[in-house]
Amino acid sequence: MRTNRLSQNGFLIPRVFLALVLVSAALFLALLSFGANPSTGSIGPTTPGSLTWLGTGKGGEADPSGTLGGEDTCVDGQNCDVYTLTLTGTVADWSGRKARVDIQWGSASHDYDMYIHKGTVTGAIVSSSARGNTKDESAEIDPSKPGVGTGIFVVHVVYWDVAPVPPPLDQYGGTVTAVGATVPNPIVPPPLPPGTATMSVFPSPPK
What we know:
By secondary structure, this protein is α+β, with helices and mostly antiparallel strands. Helices cover about 15% and strands about 35% of the residues. The chain has helices at about 1-35, 70-75, and strands at about 35-45, 50-55, 60, 80-85, 95-105, 110-120, 125-130, 135-140, 150-160, 175-180. Strands 1, 3, 4, 6, 7 and 9 form a six-stranded mixed beta sheet that branches. It has a four-stranded antiparallel beta sheet with strand order 2-10-5-8, with no helix packed on it. A hairpin with a 6-residue loop joins strand 6 (about 110-120) and strand 7. The longest helix is centred in the N-terminal third of the chain and has 32 residues, at about 1-35. The chain is globular, with a radius of gyration of 23 Å.
């Protein structure tokens, strides 16, 4: 009888181990599905070129009710996803430098928003870009600012209003580039000085 029990246990142990491996793999793939492709990247103050990634969300509306911010209601892997960025080096290494994060897509009829968090997706927001009627968003991470520094940041991209059908989805692409601290942002120009004259065009009133 002892031999039979050992034989049975020897048969069951590999099956239990295989089941655990399969469950772990499924959980790992589920976590990956919430992230961009690739899901992580590292950049230093003198890194040449740019890091790039592609969104993997399925689209939709982040907040159909319009009562809350899209980031508060979106679901990672569905209508938002994450890219984990590491700024290497120290704050002193980044003196006179900053990281510029851009996302771009095909049609201004779609709307993406971007929030950059310190540490985790629920960490403090250090920069953001949430304009409308554009085909891009851009934000900057300046390590010299209080509470920013270097280390891990999470770029949280919200599919605020991106039609999931018909295919193909107007998917966004992201880039991160280390630039000089005084280099102007080509996507988001600086605000006009107070008192600057501007011109607006209004439609004629109905007759």
